[in-house]
Design goal:
two-stranded antiparallel sheet, 18% strand, 6 helices, globular, Rossmann fold
Length: 209
């Protein structure tokens, strides 16, 4: 061991600088999950499989058939690089489902916070079978993300509850823009959900006559 004076006449032992400390590997290093791509993360977000209702029960189910449906699409202009592509994907899905182009109304709004207000106004006209809400909120460095995402979700649900018109939630809430880009197809999911709920509501109205 080498020594040095501390100025008070006493010597303090010091480690041998020529002898490196032995590296001790992290015991959990091999147990850490490998990094996943955006597609792999998306695939693991939900459990696989479909719902199966046992035989003998009366069921009311909707379909994504858009024939004779009128649909309003309310879309946020904020993060337009993402929402433009979501709107394109939603319109493609509506056309594929059989919804006529002249039966679709698109209502752009400033941001995700304004989606519920537009959705409830459109629903109250009673001109639409369902409403599809599209937007993108990317987390930043302030709590703004939490307020906007939470209010958009609760507001859109309230719009559906108060009017009785199905409102689907097609708002991406992601950590990064890259995650949002990997989830553009959620716009198509929102279209299918809205049309399916419109079908269920239609059957319920017919059954109550």
């Amino acid at each position: 061991m080498s020594e040095r004076f501390d100025g008070g006449g006493s010597a303090a032992p010091q480690p041998d600088l020529e002898r490196p400390e032995r590296f001790v590997p992290d015991e959990d290093a091999d147990e850490r999950p490998p990094l996943r791509t955006a597609d792999e993360e998306q695939a693991q977000e939900h459990a696989a499989g479909e719902l199966g209702v046992p035989e003998g029960y009366r069921t009311i189910t909707g379909s994504s058939d858009g024939a004779d449906r009128t649909v309003a699409v309310v879309v946020s202009k904020f993060n337009g690089e993402i929402t433009n592509r979501m709107l394109e994907r939603a319109l493609e899905e509506l056309a594929a489902a059989g919804v006529a182009q002249d039966a679709v109304t698109v209502a752009p709004v400033p941001g995700a916070f304004e989606l519920p207000l537009a959705a409830i106004a459109l629903a109250k006209t009673r001109r639409y079978s369902c409403i599809v809400a599209l937007g993108c909120v990317v987390r930043g460095e302030t709590p703004h993300f939490d307020y906007v995402a939470g209010e958009a979700a609760s507001g859109l649900q309230l719009a559906a509850i108060e009017t009785g018109v199905p409102v689907s939630f097609g708002v991406l809430t992601t950590e990064t823009t890259e995650q949002a880009e990997a989830r553009i197809d959620r716009a198509a999911d929102a279209v299918r959900s809205a049309l399916e709920m419109a079908g269920i509501f239609s059957q319920l109205r017919e059954a109550s006559k």
